[in-house]
């Protein structure tokens, strides 16, 4: 049942993003930033954690989840380091995911040739 719930909720998030892309003039980069900021704001308000517990991977994998991870890292770093944690917490919390994306993207470039748009 957890898999079904994660699939449905993750699918609803993706469907909402697809609607934003098709019905508005927002560029994909701006929509991605909107998702990360929304996840961070929901986390700051304390609403993302209960949503994450209910939805599981359906809420942790999309960009909303990345915003939540950043905000969670900032909260923890501020509790430990004070004001300096505002600047270091998000970077520390998101480092593994960001590093993995960079490393796998780099490795991917060895196996596939990019196709340039004309």
Number of strands: 0
| Overall pLDDT metric | 89
Main sheet characteristics = none
Strand content: under 5%
CA-based gyration radius:
16 Å
The best one-word shape is globular
Structural class by sheet pairing and helices: mainly alpha
Count of the separate structural domains: 1
Oligomer: single chain
How many H/I helices?
Answer: 6
Distance between the termini: 45 Å
Order of helices and strands: HHHHHH
- Spans of at least 5 consecutive residues with low confidence: none
Helix content: over 70%
Keywords:
mainly alpha, 0% strand, 118 residues
Concise account of the structure shown:
This protein has six helices and no strands. The chain is mainly alpha-helical.
Layout of helices and strands, plus pairs?
Elements: H1 2-23, H2 28-44, H3 48-55, H4 57-60, H5 63-81, H6 85-111
Describe this structure in words.
The chain is an all-alpha fold and 118 residues long. The protein has one domain. Helix content is 82%, strand content 0%. It has 6 helices and no strands. Helix 5 runs antiparallel to helix 6 (85-111). The longest helix is centred in the last third of the chain and has 27 residues, at 85-111. It is globular. The model has no long low-confidence stretch (mean pLDDT 89).
